[in-house]
């Protein structure tokens, strides 16, 4: 288990060092050799963790999917509205820890081919659909809207939040606040459907 933890830590280290280099020199000007050298590893070691430089950018999405499952379990005893809000807030708060670097990652990921990222987006949406289906089965929500449609809208506002936040020049704009305002609009529509 210790070996697996070290591998995870090294992958994270490579990711963050790469993002720092991308920020300093520009994505196109950073080579795998430069990343490996900055991390104190061999070029071959880099390729053990990332098949290509572009995969460094995709790491954020795939690592968030692992974290998503932990967060889903963490809030399993909450009512569906609060549970979904807490899940999204926790996922978004990750971006505040290294905001400059992660804004750059988001920008580069959007600029890169998002087709590779679609798998992560689908996993995210399927997880949200499952939570909504469970809430319907438990009768904690009663809506005519399809669970998949609700999940798509929630995931859509999540990514809209990330994009809005990453391009904002206003440092006072708080990522979670952006999401909460949009979330309330969506939830009000779901609740109105109950009447």
* CATH topology grouping of the largest domain: Tetracycline Repressor, domain 2
Distance between the termini: 52 Å
Describe the main β-sheet briefly: none
* Percent helix range: over 70%
Radius of gyration: 19 Å
Q: Could you characterize what this model shows?
A:
The chain is an all-alpha fold and about 200 residues long. The protein has two domains: about 1-50, Orthogonal Bundle (Arc Repressor Mutant, subunit A), CATH 1.10.10; about 55-190, Tetracycline Repressor, domain 2 (Orthogonal Bundle). About 75% of the residues lie in helices and about 0% in strands. The model has no long low-confidence stretch (mean pLDDT about 85).
Quick take:
It comes from Bacillus salitolerans. By secondary structure, the protein is mainly alpha-helical.
């Amino acid at each position: 288990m210790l070996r697996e933890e070290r591998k995870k830590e090294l992958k994270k280290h490579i990711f963050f060092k790469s993002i720092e280099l991308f920020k300093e020199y520009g994505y196109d000007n950073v080579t795998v050799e430069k990343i490996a050298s900055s991390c104190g590893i061999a070029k071959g070691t880099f390729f053990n963790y990332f098949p290509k430089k572009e995969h460094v950018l995709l790491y954020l999405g795939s690592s968030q999917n692992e974290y998503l499952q932990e967060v889903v379990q963490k809030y399993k005893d909450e009512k569906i509205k609060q549970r979904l809000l807490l899940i999204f807030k926790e996922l978004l708060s990750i971006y505040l820890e290294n905001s400059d670097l992660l804004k750059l990652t988001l920008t580069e990921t959007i600029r890169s081919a998002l087709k590779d990222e679609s798998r992560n987006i689908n996993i995210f949406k399927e997880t949200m659909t499952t939570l909504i289906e469970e809430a319907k089965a438990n009768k904690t929500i009663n809506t005519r809207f399809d669970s998949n449609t609700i999940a798509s809208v929630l995931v859509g506002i999540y990514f809209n939040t990330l994009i809005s936040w990453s391009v904002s020049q206003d440092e006072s704009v708080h990522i979670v606040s952006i999401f909460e305002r949009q979330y309330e609009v969506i939830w009000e529509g779901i609740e109105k459907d109950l009447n």
